[in-house]
Amino acid sequence: MIKVYDYLRTAQTYRITVNTTSRTLTLYRNDQWFKSYPVAVGKTSTPTPKGTFKIVNKSVNPGGPFGARWMGLSKPHIGIHGTNNPSSIGNAVSHGCIRMHNKDVTELYNLVPIGTIVKIL
Prior knowledge:
L,D-transpeptidase catalytic domain-like, cell wall biogenesis/degradation, 15% helix, LD-transpeptidase, glycosyltransferase, transferase, eight-stranded mixed sheet, 2 helices
């Protein structure tokens, strides 16, 4: 049986854009701006890859430095995740991943399904 919440969530179309210059992640719902979040991106030696990807897996409390949630992208070893170092948000410090505050990544995780398009600029 499909719960009403699940039906409404799947009836929505989400997509994500990450701007590595402004270090923001923007969530769109049904092609309308929905919310923006501050993020950390890859440092110069390990930059966040540019391109269009999909969320291919999700994990709750993945452990280590990945904070409260992990959303793996179709680019191997790259994901959107929380952090155990919140002061890193807004900086270019990661090994290519997109870091978010744990409260923000939890909110995003609960909204977007596997298959969501992520465009990194």
